[in-house]
């Protein structure tokens, strides 16, 4: 499908299509049944690190090592806007209401939040982490942004107070590679190179006093990705040991 590493993929259009992006600098929209691309987005000049869709599947946002985040119209394949960053962009995500985009940049380990329509910067949080941001995403309420990093910390930034509401420093003993919310925003799952996943109850105010649910011994190597099922009864994780684990 791609000529290099596939960095991100999503089902869309009621599971009839798949959107994927790659280090081959392209983003492709695939017809699941026919197995070939129906749309190819080719404006990036370096590896594409992530792609994210609006819930109505009308727009896609992509981040790249070419220092940009771009937005595209899914139907026409036309590029809508480009936001230049000062260094490579490692992650991007569009909020569930389609209003905002968050991106993680390598320079000063900064998080940017900008308006998804006008591409104007709403927040510019410098030094948010102490090392490369591996993943940043909105919660389902569009109120908080979670981010994880090579610095082994988990952070939640509040859109309303415009401040970091939660920092977890001791969650994992190695790089945190991915994070995801349940569809109700009650729990956050984090995946790490320490071979474990942890599930955090972030709706409870005093949650930091309680130990997270730890998922161990599913992988023999670093865990690279995680996602909850829609009903939050399962977590699926992928690892550098070439295995996929499904957790109850």
Automatic annotation (TrEMBL):
Keywords: Repeat, WD repeat. Pfam families: WD40 (PF00400). Gene3D superfamilies: YVTN repeat-like/Quinoprotein amine dehydrogenase. It comes from the Eukaryota. SUPFAM superfamilies: WD40 repeat-like. WD repeats lie at residues 1-40, 41-82, 126-167, 169-206, 216-248. InterPro entries: WD40/YVTN_repeat-like_dom_sf, WD40_PAC1, WD40_repeat_CS, WD40_repeat_dom_sf, WD40_rpt. SMART domains: WD40. This is WD repeat-containing protein 88. It comes from Antrostomus carolinensis. The lineage of its organism: Eukaryota, Metazoa, Chordata, Craniata, Vertebrata.
């Amino acid at each position: 499908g791609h000529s290099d590493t596939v960095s991100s993929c999503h089902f869309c259009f009621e599971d009839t299509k798949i959107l994927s992006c790659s280090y081959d600098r392209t983003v492709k929209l695939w017809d699941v049944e026919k197995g070939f691309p129906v749309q190819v987005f080719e404006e990036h000049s370096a590896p594409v690190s992530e792609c994210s869709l609006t819930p109505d599947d009308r727009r896609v946002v992509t981040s790249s090592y070419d220092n940009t985040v771009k937005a595209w119209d899914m139907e026409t394949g036309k590029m809508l806007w480009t936001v230049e960053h000062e260094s490579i962009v490692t992650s991007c995500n569009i909020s569930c209401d389609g209003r905002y985009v968050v991106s993680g940049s390598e320079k000063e380990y900064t998080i940017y939040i900008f308006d998804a329509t006008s591409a104007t910067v709403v927040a510019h949080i410098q030094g948010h982490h102490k090392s490369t941001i591996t993943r940043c995403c909105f919660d389902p309420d569009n109120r908080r942004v979670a981010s994880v990093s090579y610095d082994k910390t988990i952070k939640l930034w509040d859109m309303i107070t415009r401040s970091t509401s939660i920092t977890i420093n001791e969650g994992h003993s190695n790089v945190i590679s991915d994070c995801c919310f349940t569809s109700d925003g009650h729990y956050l799952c984090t995946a790490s190179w320490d071979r474990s996943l942890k599930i955090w109850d972030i709706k409870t105010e005093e949650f930091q006093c309680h130990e997270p649910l730890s998922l161990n011994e599913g992988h023999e190597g670093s865990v690279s990705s995680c996602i909850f099922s829609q009903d939050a009864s399962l977590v699926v994780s992928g690892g550098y040991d070439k295995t996929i684990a499904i957790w109850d």
